[in-house]
Predict the structure.
Amino acid sequence: MWNLYLPIAGNSINILLLFGLGGAVGFLSGLFGVGGGFLMTPLLIMAGIPSTVAAASDSNQIVAASTSGTFAHYRMGNVDFKMGFLLLVGGVVGGTLGVQLIKVLVALGNADFVIKITYVVMLGVVGFYMFLESLQSLRKKAVVEGKRPETGGTSAYARAIQALPWQLRFDKSGVTFSALLPLILGTLVGILAAIMGVGGGFIMVPVMVYMLRMPMHVVVGTSLFQILFTCINVTVMQAITNHTVDLVLALILLVGSTLGAQVGAKLSRRLKADQLKILLASIVLVVMVQILVGLILTPNLLLGYKGGH
Amino acid sequence: MTVRGLKMRKLAWFGLLAAIMLVPAVAAASSARIRLFPDRVDIGAFFQGVEVTLQGEIPPGAEAVVEIQGAAVQQELLRKGRRGGLWMTVGEIRVENAPNLYLVLSSAPKVPQLDGQETPWGFPALRSRVKFQGALTDQEKELFFKEFLELKKSEELYGTLPGAIKIGNSPEGQTTLKGTFLLPAKVPPGNYRVRLSVVKDGRVLEQKNEELEVKMVGFPALLAAMAYEHGSFYGVVAVLIAIATGFIMGFLFKGKAEH
């Protein structure tokens, strides 16, 4: 009685299961500023949704969760629109480049190898670095919450940032550097995200924290703002070219996820930046291990359907 | 009238007589019947698969084989393999002429086989029709046909159900049939051919075909038509609904927080 037919997915699924999945992933989205596609899409495939429909409908759902999350963070003053816009422009350029790169890799015949290795390495590097860094600062209590590391140090990275033209002040984030920096970093994340077929929130968040040196709470709000536009683009494109957006699936998921995103955003204000980082790092590492196990264990079947992540 | 003309006339009369005499025999041979309940399947908003019952009659002493077969489609599948010790996609395999659903039911505890000729039902018969192309060698085709069957069986779209048809006796001395099969929630909309083959002593006595229509109706049909025929409108609506829900939820929570 709690089952509903999904016309584009061509399968029937339990409403409560979808609602629960949406709620859990939306909660993480509001808490960490990630879209959660790297968690949701595999879960939907496990529930019997074709992978192409799972990925496209999930991006539709993320539009709702990130609207809800961005709105909640905006009210708390946690969205740096200027920074978000520059990252977004970079992300679009990077995404376009990444799609072309994938075409070249497919033609060379080793696309999946590059995709899988990039995925595992990125998750591993991001997860380990974030985990160790936040563990250290949690232990030493050396970094007071809200105070960022010195940007005027003598490191080559800091000097390079200052040497770039078009220096700009980002009030919400409390940083001053060249407008080129978020553009370049946005492009790099966009390329990686396109290769991996994900939104890239889990790479963008650490990039903002460690390379743009933004405060964690502004990072979450700004990341959600950026994800919102990326996913609007993906949803419309998928609906036009592949007809893979299942509105029924997305609707049930997004009722759960918008609720979850609000709860997550509220909790994110109560948690310390290092606690947030260490939690996100742990989730990223768990996903990495799960993918790695999938690569090592012999699969049940040697044939599978196309699409997905 | 020539002698030749007379001969022809006799021959024609003889032919007609023979035809009249044969009619009852043919009528007796085509005594098999099959009916489906329901005879049309509607996929509505709450569809979660359906159990279809088949009933029919066959001549005494015979066995029944029923095949439920969907349209032959072309499918692009991904082949997994090892690269650098890791399992991943290593190429594409195109499967041609494989039905999108194939179920075989029989009255005998083992699906009957024909004597001296190729049995037209079951997975071995399917093997001779299905073509594989792409990232596989000729030697690997058997292995990948088995993998293909396993994939389809795991989705409940392919299956053999020996003994699933129960046999009884009608007051008219005919053998009656009754069986059920499940069309899973994943069943693709379309027309399905249900074929009853009457088998005796390793030979097919007769075959009867029925059609089973599976159709999306109501809200799912409306949504699918919009998604396929007005993709850009559908995409924009999907995004607008998502944004609106996000904002509404935001306002609802704002109200709560102000208490």
User: Anything to note?
Assistant: Residues 22-29 of chain B have pLDDT under 50 and may be disordered. The helical segments of chain B are 3-29, 123-129, 141-154, 218-229, 231-257. The first helix of chain B runs from residue 3 to 29.
